From TrEMBL:
Protein name: Uncharacterized protein
Transmembrane segments: none
InterPro entries reported for this sequence: RCHY1_zinc-ribbon (IPR039512), Znf_CHY (IPR008913), Znf_CHY_sf (IPR037274), Znf_CTCHY (IPR017921), Znf_CTCHY_sf (IPR037275), Znf_RING (IPR001841), Znf_RING/FYVE/PHD (IPR013083)
GO molecular function, one term: zinc ion binding
Highest taxon of the lineage: Eukaryota
One Gene Ontology cellular component annotation held by this UniProt entry: nucleus
Gene3D superfamilies: 2.20.28.10, Zinc/RING finger domain, C3HC4 (zinc finger)
Acidic residues: compositionally biased ranges: 287-308, 317-346
Span of domain CHY-type: 18-88
Region (Disordered): 281-354
The species this protein was found in: Polysphondylium violaceum
Domain spans labelled RING-type: 155-198
Biological processes annotated in GO: protein ubiquitination; ubiquitin-dependent protein catabolic process
Taxon lineage: Eukaryota, Amoebozoa, Evosea, Eumycetozoa, Dictyostelia
Amino acid sequence: MDISNISEEELKETYFDVDKDILGCKHYPRACKIKAACCGKFFTCRFCHNEKENKHDIDRHATKFILCMKCKIPQLVSNQCINPRCETIFARYYCFVCKFYDDTPNKKIFHCQDCGICRVGSRDDFKHCSRCNMCLGVNTFDSHKCMEGTYLNNCPVCMEDLFSSRDSTVPLRCGHPLHFECYNQFIKANHYQCPVCKKSIANLANAWKRYDRLIESSPMPAMYKGSTASITCNDCHVKTMDMPLHFIGLKCSGCGGYNTTVMSQNVQIDQTLANDPNQSIFRVNEGDDVDQVSDDEEDDEDDDDENQDGVYGVGEYEGDEDDDEELDYDDDDDDDNEDEEFDSAEADEHNENN
């Protein structure tokens, strides 16, 4: 291959760690660049290409040529420089299918034939679900909620790719996945509904008990006597018609939870009590969700619900920065542990993509 038509920028060495003289880029340590078949330019990795050529993504499988960053010799894809005076090994891990190189010491990576990409972790720790089209941890595979093609969608929080993301993912109890970091930020912002289907993302039984106590100790002002609302439950989908209105929450008659949405309301106001300074004015709008945990309870929820019941980690794609660890959330029948705990639980290793 003629080197004369390769730009100085393409020939320039790039570094994963300049201080330690480790070649690569901010994404991966490696000693070669790949030639994008789409635009014919050399980039250190596919992410470097996609960030610069933001109008299109690289087809990793179409890569045929690489450039040794030490001797500047362009050559066919392999893991060792063909220059007999160089013979540099480009990376500790090399996938000839994905044309992926990663020189990270002791990093476990495997190629999943069904996913068509490389995953971070040990092959023995994961099993591919053909319906979800994703590798899942073997310890949670049998219990996961299968949803066809769900990982082909974008994360509903950040709207970025899930299937080939370098960030690990977390499937919620309902089956909809989020990036692990998005999940953590979601919880910190005191959101307890799936952003897709509005189902509770944890077992909030203890929170509902607190709602019961609050409602019992905080009767509605007399001016609202006779006010009713009709609701639908976001968790069990049971509809409750013409139930007494309460400003703290509206309880599902099916599952007993407060993750409900107002369908309609009939607010009765006794005008003779309208000017009573002890009467609180309150109105629930149709379509409002009435399951939000009150400010006084948010701290309790953070303490009580630190692990999400029924949530399991998914591995990372080649490129995941996180160490591959599993989310292990157990259901607890005891009242003390009834709530799922939102912990800094760690996702199964595997969500990395070359």
